[in-house]
Amino acid sequence: MGLPVLQVDAFTAQPFAGNPAALCLLERAGEAAWMQAVAAEMNLSETAFLVPRLTAGNPGGFDLRWFTPTVEVDLCGHATLASAHALWEVGRLPAGEPARFHTRSGVLTCRKDGAWIWMDFPASASRPAETPAGLVEGLGLAPSVCPEVVARSSFFYLAVLGTEAAVRALKPDPARLRALPVVGVIATARADEGRPYDFVSRCFAPAAGIDEDPVTGAAHCALAPYWSVLLGRTALTGFQASRRGGIVRVEVKGERVLLGGQAVTVLRGELV
Question: Fewest C-beta atoms under 10 Å: which of 65, 99, 126, 223?
């Protein structure tokens, strides 16, 4: 019998939207090279590997690792959301029990609230930064157009643009962005008046093998504290304006951020 694998679209309630992740449900940890090969075969922005952890003979959550098609990463929101959704859906966890994941970024927990899943992640405060060489060209901005603010968080450069339309219109150059000394670049702006969300974003991570990520939970760990200060509220809604698109609810709680999203399974199968 093969190893169970699911594909889940995260940060969406509709199939074929949001950000797809593959989930491999293992009984024991696999070799890193094998997991990387599986992730390359899945060819999605992330493939997650889950292994149940026992503590003194009792369930102690799950070890969780994330791989892009080219590298292992330290933090991934959409594949964590997809993992919790899958565990509840296949009965590995009772519906009312929180999902607890042991990861490179510490212990991450998820809880279900109706159709929404809420993840407790570390906040990633950004600090003002000089505009690095290649950022403006890498985002496809005209030389006369510069970001209003450039900041840097643990994993990303944050480029704040003047309008939602400017974010949506970007035509990035992955080769230029790949040369920057970060995992990825987030472009963001305040949402147009009347939108059902507060800010928009797009996220580009060619250095990790992802030219544009459809919906990025880790990016919202930086976006949430930034926009919370600017807009004067701790609870906000973001829309990631990729081709697939997705909604991320955020709530800033000190040095933590709650990320809320929905998910839907689109494929179940086996690795043979």
Answer: 126
